[in-house]
Amino acid sequence: MSAPEPPAQAGAQEVLALEGLRWRWPGAPTDTLRIDTLHLQAGERLMLRGDSGCGKSTLLSLAAGVLPAPSGQVRLLGRDWAAMRPAQRDAWRADHVGYLFQQFNLLPYLDVLGNVLLPCRFSRERARRCGAASPREEAQRLLEALELPAALWGRPAATLSVGQQQRVAAARALIGRPALIIADEPTSALDERRRDGFMALLGRECAAAGSALLFVSHDPRLAAHFGRVIELPDRSAAESPRSSTAADIAEGRT
Hints:
Blueprint: E1 14-23, E2 33-41, E3 45-49, H1 56-63, E4 71-76, E5 79-80, H2 86-96, E6 97-100, H3 112-116, H4 118-122, H5 124-128, H6 135-145, H7 162-174, E7 180-184, H8 192-209, E8 212-216, E9 228-231, E10 242-244, H9 246-250
């Protein structure tokens, strides 16, 4: 894959770069992922689409340095994940990646505010980037923007509904203005009104922080929120992914 990319904006920082990447599940006859070049700049929003098994979640794990790349390079803010020791990868990820997991990965017995504040406990950089507000004040601001009532903030995460837990996970990913926001099917548990509100908030927060957004979803209605959409094909049916604009998706040309 050498996905068509928009022209680089003058002065824009490269947040994520994947080059010569190959990934194959053990025992698989062919590569699940073949990416020659993929670059994501500060403030850019990229949506990944594809059927189950095409490697979307694996690509997110490679981008975040959770999985090591067996070949090729994956760089975050110019640093190759493979060149770091495990402890360095963990620290770099804590400082610069906000990860919104499909299964949320909240600590069930920690309260809502405690879950949102976790990145600031592990990363002084994330706490510092809350700006003039304290991390706690920033967590409260995000929860209010996500329409989670203050009456719930002191409750254990396990007592919340699925949709409420998803909003807590979103606030945790956004706090501290990370350079890269990775979102794996983040709207799946939201109704239409909250889905649209969530996408608007996510866009505003990423724009304000200059964060790049790498987003996976099966929902074609979300394509209008992205400047670039990449289709990851089933390797048994196609040889290379296609990149398209949001207009192509909306008009059914992909």
